[in-house]
Amino acid sequence: xxxxxxxxxxxxxxxxxxxxxxxxxxxxxxxxxxxxxxxxxxxxxxxxxxxxxxxxxxxxxxxxxxxxxxxxxxxxxxxxxxxxxxxxxxxxxxxxxxxxxxxxxxxxxxxxxxxxxxxxxxxxxxxxxxxxxxxxxxxxxxxxxxxxxxxxxxxxxxxxxxxxxxxxxxxxxxxxxxxxxxxxxxxxxxxxxxxxxxxxxxxxxxxxxxxxxxxxx
Length: 217
Description:
Number of helices: 6
Number of domains: 1
Oligomer: single chain
Helix content: 25-40%
Radius of gyration: 23 Å
Strand content: 25-35%
Structural class: alpha+beta
Number of strands: 9
């Protein structure tokens, strides 16, 4: 009867203890906080930030760098008009929503959004607009969400071609692949949860230097 217990103790020493030590080292070594940040899905905000939000007057290049650096952690940037002192904007490509099995992808917040992206085909893209104001800048983050439009009747005309709403040609060959045919994507409105996460992260990056100055005074 001791053999199973001995095996369990051996497993604990050879697997769980090293994993715990590795986790402790990652948390202790400087610079690993960002790595842990990337591996943990963002949480929905507990309080709402006004969107668009106001920012104090800062250098345009610095502000735009924080915008691009933040958004790049969530989406791939498609088009970019850098802030020229008056206006700046960027738009990302669509990204299929991260599931519960992909905690390292940050385009779905924890809870409902990530569960929905696990059970259904969801995609998102982000748009960020920055406008100069008298006392600084206004910044707006928009995240658009869509659900896949799956057709269940096209199989009646085998071999026919159809155009998806996004211009992609689809074939009625689900009898061979076992996969549904996609007609396009249906808008679901805005993902305000992810908007808040991205917006707050940009604000934190921009305002962090000012907070450090206050701490030193």
